[in-house]
Description:
The two termini are about 30 Å apart. The chain is about 60% helix and about 0% strand. The protein has helices spanning about 10-15, 40-70, 80-110, 120-130, 130-140, 165-195, 205-240, 250-265, 265-285, 295-305, 320-335, 335-350, 360-385, 385-390, 395-425, 430-460, 470-500. This is Cytochrome c oxidase subunit 1. It is found in: Cell membrane; Membrane.
Amino acid sequence: MTIDSMTQAQVQEKANIPAEIEEPGIRKWWEYFTFNTDHKVIGIQYLVSTFIFYCIGGVMADLVRTELRTPEVDFVTPEVYNSLFTLHATIMIFLWIVPAGAGFTNYVLPLMIGAKDMAFPRLNALAFWIIPPAGLMLIASLVVGDAPDAGWTSYPPLSLVTGQVGEGIWIMSVLLLGTSSILGAINFIVTLLKMRAPGIGFHQLPLFCWAAFATSALVLLSTPVLAAGLILLAFDLFAGTTFFNPTGGGDPVVYQHMFWFYSHPAVYIMILPFFGVISEVIPVHSRKPIFGYKAIAYSSLAISFLGLIVWAHHMFTSGIPGWLRMFFMITTMIIAVPTGIKIFSWLGTLWGGKLHLERPALLFAIGFVGTFVIGGISGVMLAAVPFDIHVHDTYFVVAHLHYVLFGGSVLGIYAAFYHWFPKMTGRMLNEFWGQVHFAFTIIGLNMAFLPMHKLGMMGMNRRVAQYDPQFTFLNEICTYGAYILAVSTFPFIINVIWSWMYGAKAGNNPWSALTLEWMTASPPAFENFDKPPVLATGPYDYGLENAREGVPLSDAEPVLSAGTNSVLRANPDEPYPAIAAETDER
């Protein structure tokens, strides 16, 4: 077969045959409970442990929603209610979405750039093993008798009148989790900058790598500020200082600035990795080149930069000057521009593509785009000072948050699971049960959170267990939606466990994808590649006019794809001839 008669996937795979280790890296189950330095083991450790914490946080959410099903306080006490929603929010952010993004980055980033491992394997393992004890500490604060109940923001002086032990455990847990994020971010940045295979420049990187780089930079710049604020808060609690206590001359608004300087960038820390996931899933499963590669790549960097100058839009009611309100209103609205660029590019990629709608990865990716747009629109509304003041501390804000972080990040996590599960395990997930999982998730998501917009506009305050009876009907809908969301996890859990043990063999490249993680065995060999892999085509060159999708590559019709974005191969000793010089017209 000649070069001109090959599909791009055939070109990519043939170029990497000598660079591939045929023996898959199958691990013993007990290795996942050890201090292992293999980035693939660490990635799975992240994903499994964070999913367990997600289930725990979900149980807390359902307990909160059960209390809110009726206007009276009739299920848990107000104090327990406050502690439950405080820990629910903390767990979902610091023990689920943020480390889940780190888990996928750990697993696929070295594979995507042709590296054998992360730059600092032991530091990588340490970053993970900080998480389980920190999570257990956080949950333990519920049983010490004075669990934190000032909200996940832990605003002083509210936090200064709650139980000090529970609050101290909360602070220590978040500090440890922040340390884990910082260690991971350092590793990701150094790995990306220093360990790419020869010939792989930044414009040949998969878009997930750009998203990982932008996320890591944001972590390094913002997380230390949160750590400083929490340390000062701990001094106020235990050492009698008054950094934030107004009774001693302190200023609680300073804490808000320090907290939100991290916690609004944290929204982008939670969503940027899954922007990258969607940029990987949509081209593969719609068989289309990505629309606007450079626009998507640089918009990730723009979001990372702008995310650092929007924090005070959470503080429009805190008494900050009017001119400062205007500045943060404008910057918050501007950040919608690079996000809109991504949405437009994803839709442009889907348009006219051969959509494999039977695949759960694509279903969750499309669901991500739709629900995240709702969250984005409500975010622009909240950026406007008059509207934000009107709905501040109401359920409109809760609805916005969940459409961004559940409709966005969590659907992105599921898309990533379905997309990379064959690479991680060598097995295929069952598509039917994946479709069932998607249907229940979308129905439950919209039932649980869409009515909250109306509740907020009607004036229902968040963070309270008791409310006016006029809000009862909508709260019942929200509660039943939360129950459906809880049920939706069961087909996913059963599917993952069953498929991991008995699922159909996946092969090395079940999606006929072009990025380098698919150019090695499934699961990948212990050191990924025995020599630097070859990038023979662009990562998204899917312009195959007559390819028979779903047919093994060896049986596919030979097709010449014109206009591919090929790059020079990195391995000059490989007998397969170079394809072309780089022609980046995107």
